[in-house]
């Protein structure tokens, strides 16, 4: 008896994940039920024609269909499924009965979160980062870090120079959101209003080609302390990219760009 109960529990645990892997919607004559549902990203929604007529499940609205999904004609007893990996609200309708109010929606929410960058606070030194000079990531005391003991310190030489740090990272295709975050302090002896020294925050492809410059900071953006910055990089979901901070200083006065506590946060 105990053995049977134990086996039943094991079987229930094994079967349970599959039970939550899909959500069903019933197609009735002239309506869906439940017509408006909310599911976490990665959920498969299965529509079953339980009516006596033919129907479709088509993304968009009767006046503005989209190409995200289209079941084609579904006969009684047939099914159609689609897996929703992106966050948002997705409208759908029946091509035969949409003008009669046969419409519905699927709202997709993000469930789990993750941080993808390695050694994000530089506490392991140059590990996982590719600096253009070995001393860029340091625990020196001339400038304090945001947290911990280490930070990335670009430029600050008062002569013409370019320095950078880079890390490669893969953003999953299933990411609902993705943001690059970091804390930045800009210390400078420049006093004018001209951007003589600059720091660019860039996304590169695997070959080093610049895909996007997220922001450009300069000596005119100087700060007395670290300030948090955040940029949306969800458009790079499904790609392996390189995150690069690159500072360029001219030959006049000094500007030091200090970066700490980076993160590439995703939800999926």
Keyword list:
single chain; 268 residues; mainly beta; Immunoglobulin-like; Jelly Rolls; 2 domains; five-stranded mixed beta sheet; elongated
What does this 3D model show about the protein?
There is one protein chain. The protein is mainly beta and 268 residues long. The chain contains 1 helix and 20 strands. The protein has one helix at residues 2-19; strands at 22-28, 31-33, 36-40, 43-49, 58-61, 64-70, 79-84, 88-93, 103-109, 113-115, 130-131, 137-138, 151-155, 161-170, 177-188, 198-204, 210-218, 227-232, 240-249, 255-267. Strands 10, 12, 13, 15, 18 and 20 form a 6-stranded antiparallel sheet that branches. A 5-stranded mixed sheet has the order 3-9-8-5-6, with no helix packed on it. Strands 11-14-19-16-17 form a 5-stranded antiparallel sheet, with no helix packed on it. Strand 1 (22-28) and strand 2 (31-33) form a beta hairpin. The protein starts with a helix and ends with a strand.
């Amino acid at each position: 008896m105990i053995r049977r109960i134990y086996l039943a529990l094991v079987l229930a645990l094994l079967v349970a994940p599959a039970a939550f892997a899909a959500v069903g919607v019933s197609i009735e004559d002239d309506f869906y039920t439940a017509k408006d549902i909310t599911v976490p990203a990665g959920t498969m929604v299965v529509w079953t024609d339980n009516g006596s007529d033919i129907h479709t499940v088509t993304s968009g609205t009767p006046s503005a269909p989209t190409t995200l999904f289209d079941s084609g004609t579904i006969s009684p007893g047939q099914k159609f499924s689609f897996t929703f990996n992106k966050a948002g609200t997705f409208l759908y309708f029946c091509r035969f009965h949409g003008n009669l109010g046969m419409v519905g929606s699927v709202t997709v929410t993000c469930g789990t979160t993750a941080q993808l960058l390695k050694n994000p606070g530089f506490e392991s030194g140059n590990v996982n980062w590719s600096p253009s000079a070995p001393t860029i990531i340091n625990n020196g005391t001339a400038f304090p870090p945001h947290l911990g003991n280490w930070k990335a310190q670009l430029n600050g030489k008062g002569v013409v120079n370019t320095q950078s740090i880079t890390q490669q990272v893969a953003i999953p295709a299933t990411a609902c959101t993705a943001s690059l975050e970091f804390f930045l302090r800009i210390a400078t002896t420049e006093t004018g209003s001209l951007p003589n020294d600059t720091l660019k925050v860039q996304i590169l492809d695997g070959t080093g080609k610049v895909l996007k410059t997220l922001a450009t900071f300069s000596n005119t953006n100087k700060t007395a302390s670290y300030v948090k910055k955040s940029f949306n990089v969800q458009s790079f979901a499904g790609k392996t990219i390189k995150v690069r901070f690159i500072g360029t200083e001219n030959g006049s006065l000094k500007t030091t760009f200090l970066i700490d506590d980076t993160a590439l946060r995703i939800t999926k």
